[in-house]
Design goal:
Layout (H helix, E strand, L loop, with lengths): L8 E7 L5 H12 L4 E5 L8 H7 L11 H12 L4 E7 L4 E8 L4 E6 L6 H4 L4 E5 L3 H15 L4 H10 L3 H6 L8 E6 L12 E6 L19 E7 L5 E7 L5 H12 L14 E4 L2 E4 L1 H18 L6
Length: about 300
C-alpha cells in the first residue's frame, strides 16, 4: 500500500453514543492492517468519572465534562508524528485509569463524541466522517451495547438517553456540518429487526474526491444508487445509497473495485462488514462497502491526493 506523505494520516469518526463508531473504526483498521493503525478514542478524555458526572448533573456529551484542550493538543502532536501520554476512561466501570503512551503509526483512527469541537482539532484530520443512524436504530444499539458490555440495566440506559436528550442536539449534531462524509443507516420498510440488510446512505460532500462509480451503473442493476441532491443545509452533495438487499454479486463487484485500490489488504477481505448483533457476530454488505470506502479515502490521503 503506497504512502508518500511523511506524517501520519488521521481519520475522524464522530457521532452520538452507539452510532456505530467502533464498528466502522474496527473495519477500517482491519483493511489497513493493525500494524499500520493507531486507534484513539476521544472519549478517553472525559474529565470526570461516571459517579462524578452524576453528582455534578453533567453528561459526557458536554464539552465541559471533557479535556477538550488536551485532546486538541494531542491531535496536533500525533499529526506531527509525536507520541502522547493519553488518558484512559474505563467504559465498563465508568472510572478514570492511569494514562498510557501512544505513538502514531501510518494511520491514526480517532473515534468519539466530540472530535470536531474546535477548529484546531478539525484541522488535524485528513478525512472526517459523521455517523447519523436512524434514532430507533441507535437506541437499539445503545441498549444492546450498554447492557452487555458496560454493566447497565435496560432502565438505566433509557434513563440516560432521556437525561442526554438536550445534549445531543447542542453538542453532537452541530459537528455534522464539518464532516466530509455523513453516513446514515436506515431500516428498510418491513424490516424484521436484523441489521444485516440496513440501507446505508453516504452524503458525499465535495471536500474530498470520491471514487468513480460510473462503471458500476452499466446494465441497470439495482442495489446501488447515486444522485445529486441537497443536504439539510441546502448545499449540493452527491448521495450514494447502498440498498440493504443488494445482491451478493453486485456487492462483490463494488468491493472488487475498491479492493483494487487496496491491494496489500486483499487477504483481509473476510474481516470487513462484521458487526456485533444480539444473536452474535454477523456480516453486512452495506457495512463492508462503507468500511472500504472510508479506507479508500485514507489511502488516497496517504498518497497525497487529498488536501486540507
Amino acid at each position: 500500500m503506497p504512502k508518500t506523505l511523511n506524517r501520519p494520516i488521521i481519520l475522524g469518526i464522530v457521532g452520538d453514543s452507539a452510532s456505530g463508531k467502533t464498528t466502522l473504526s474496527s473495519g477500517v483498521t482491519n483493511i489497513l492492517s493493525e500494524e499500520r493503525c493507531t486507534p484513539l478514542c476521544s472519549d478517553d478524555y472525559h474529565r470526570y468519572s461516571r459517579v462524578e458526572r452524576r453528582e455534578l448533573g453533567i453528561s459526557a456529551l458536554d464539552p465541559r465534562a471533557n479535556y477538550i484542550e488536551i485532546l486538541e493538543q494531542h491531535l496536533q502532536l500525533l499529526r506531527q508524528g509525536q507520541p502522547i501520554l493519553k488518558p484512559i476512561y474505563d467504559h465498563g466501570s465508568g472510572t478514570l485509569s492511569p494514562a498510557e503512551i501512544v505513538s502514531p503509526k501510518d494511520f491514526v483512527i480517532v473515534e468519539g463524541l466530540l472530535g470536531y469541537t474546535t477548529r484546531a482539532m478539525r484541522n488535524c484530520y485528513d478525512v472526517k466522517i459523521f455517523l447519523e443512524p436512524e434514532e430507533d436504530l441507535r437506541i437499539k444499539w445503545k441498549i444492546h451495547r450498554d447492557t452487555t458490555r458496560r454493566g447497565y440495566t435496560r432502565d438505566e440506559v433509557l434513563n440516560s438517553l432521556e437525561l442526554r436528550s438536550g445534549d445531543s442536539p447542542s453538542y453532537i449534531h452541530p459537528q455534522r456540518t464539518f464532516a466530509d462524509i455523513v453516513i446514515q443507516s436506515q431500516k428498510p420498510h418491513g424490516a424484521n429487526g436484523s441489521d444485516a440488510h440496513l440501507h446505508v446512505k453516504h452524503i458525499l460532500r465535495p471536500t474530498l474526491p470520491h471514487p468513480d462509480f460510473s462503471p458500476l451503473f452499466d446494465g441497470g442493476e439495482s442495489g446501488l444508487h447515486l444522485e445529486m441532491a441537497r443536504d439539510s443545509d441546502g448545499k449540493p452533495v452527491d448521495m450514494l445509497q447502498i440498498e440493504g438487499d443488494i445482491s451478493n454479486k453486485r456487492a462483490e463487484r463494488i468491493e472488487d473495485l475498491l479492493w483494487t485500490l487496496l491491494p496489500e489488504a486483499g487477504h483481509l477481505r473476510d474481516q470487513v462488514g462484521r458487526y456485533d448483533a444480539e444473536s452474535g457476530e454477523s456480516v453486512s454488505h452495506p457495512l463492508a462497502l462503507t468500511q472500504l470506502m472510508v479506507a479508500f479515502h485514507m489511502v488516497k490521503a496517504a498518497m497525497g491526493e487529498h488536501a486540507i
